[in-house]
Amino acid sequence: MLLFLRSKDLVPAARERLTNLGVDFQLVSEEPIFEIRAHLSIYSPPVLATKLADLGRVETGKSRTPLLDAMPSGHEVVVEVRGRTEPIRFRNQPRQAVWIAGPCSLDESNNLEENAARLAKLGVQVLRGGAVKPRTSPHEFQGVGRAGYSQLARAAHAHGMACISETLSEDDVPEAAEFLDIIQVGARNMQNFALLRKLGRCAKPVMLKRGPGATLLEWASAAEYILNEGNRRIILCERGVRGLETELRYTLDLAGAAFMQHRYSLPMVIDPSHATGVKQILEACTAGALAMGFAGVMLETHPRPAEARSDALQALTPEEFSAIAGRHLHS
Ligand code: PEP
Ligand code: MN
Questions:
Q1: For the sheet containing 25-27, what is the strand order?
Q2: Is ligand 1 within 6 A of the CB of residue 274?
Q3: Residue 104 dihedral angles phi and psi, to the nearest 5°
Q4: What separation, in Å, do the N-terminal and C-terminal C-alpha atoms of the chain show?
Q5: Which ligand 1 atom sits nearest the alpha carbon of residue 166?
Q6: How high does pLDDT run on average in the chain?
Q7: How does pLDDT run across 225-237, given as a tens digit for each residue?
Q8: Rounded to an integer, what distance in angstroms lies between the CA atom of residue 274 and that of residue 250?
Q9: Percentage of the chain with pLDDT > 90?
C-alpha cells in the first residue's frame, strides 16, 4: 500500500500516525511517499486507507512491485569508487553507457593486473571477474573463492575502475560488501530470496541478472525484494533467456529489456557474452544495446581465452575487445 502525502510537511505527522497504528512502513523516495506493509497489519487495507485519508492519496492496488512503481523515472545508480574522483553513474540514457569487462572467472590463467591496466586504458569503467562461480556441474571449476574479491578490488582500484563480482549465497555477502563496488546476483540466483533480502540490507549497489526462465514480472519482483529491505541502488542485467534456440547459448531479450526500461526506472545493463556465447556476434549485440540507450554493457574478455577455466569460447581476446571498444565505447 502506498500513501502519497499531500505535502512534504506532512512527513512527521504521517510517521506519528503510522507508528500509532502499529504498521510497518518506510519512506520510499525523496518524494513524500510511504510504503506501508499492509499485509502485516492488523487492519485490512480498506480500514487503513480510511484512517490515513486526510494525509493524502492512498493506493491499495494489487501491484506486486509497489516500491518499484513508486521510484522516480530516470533513477540513477551512483557507484562511488575508492581512488576515483568522479563516481560511476548507471542511468538509461543514450551515449552514457558504462562498460563492464573482464574475465568470466578469476583464475590462475589471468594476469589480472595487466588485464585491468589494458581495460582501463580503453575506457572500461568496471572490472568484472567471478570469484565464486555458479557452475552447472560440481565437477567444473568452482572459482578461487571469496579471496578473489579483494584481489579484484585491488586490480580495479589501482586503475581507477570499479569492480563487480558475484555472491552465490548469503555467506558471501559480508566479504563481498567489504571489497566490491557492485555485487552481482547471478542468473541462477535471481529468486534466491534470502540472498536478495540480505543484499537489500547491505550498503552496496547490486546488479540483478535475469533468470534464464524468468518472466519480466518475476524479475521485477526479485528487484522488489531488494528494494523492500531499503537498498535502492539496483541495476538490472539482461543476460539471455531460454527459448527454442540451439545455435546460441540463450536468447538475448532486448525487447524485454526495453520493456523493463519503459515500465520501471532501474538502469539496465546488457550482457551479450552470456546471452549468446558466440564471440562473432558480440559486437552486433553490443551496438544494438548501445543504440537502445541502456545504462551499460558487459563483455567477457581474457588475455588467452584458451586457458580460461570457464566460458573460454565466448571470451574476447584483448585485440578483439579493443577493436570493439575502439569502434563503440566513446560513440
Ligand atoms: C557471470 O556473469 O559471471 C555469470 C555467471 O553469468 P550468469 O549468471 O548470467 O550466467
Ligand atoms: Mn561467464
A1: 25-27, 33-36, 2-5, 56-59
A2: yes
A3: -60, -55
A4: 43
A5: 3
A6: 94
A7: 999 999 999 999 9
A8: 7
A9: 84
More confident residue, 111 or 162: 162
User: Sorting pLDDT into bands at 50, 70 and 90, what band is 176?
Assistant: very high
Q: Is the pLDDT of residue 131 over 90?
A: yes
In 3D space, the residue among 288, 294, 227 whose CA is nearest the CA of residue 260 turns out to be 294
Q: Is 285 a pocket residue for ligand 1 (Cβ < 6 Å)?
A: no
Sign (positive/negative) of CA torsion 269, 141, 168, 128?
negative
Residue 274 has pLDDT above 80, yes or no: yes
Cell of residue 2, nine digits = 502506498
- Give the residue, out of 136, 164, 166, with the most ligand 1 atoms within 8 A of its beta carbon, to mutate for a pocket test: 166
166 touches ligand 1 (CB under 6 Å): yes
Cell (9 digits) for 6: 499531500
Closest listed ligand to the CA of 187: 1
84-100 average pLDDT score: 95
For residue 270, which phi and psi values (nearest 5 degrees)?
A: -105, 135
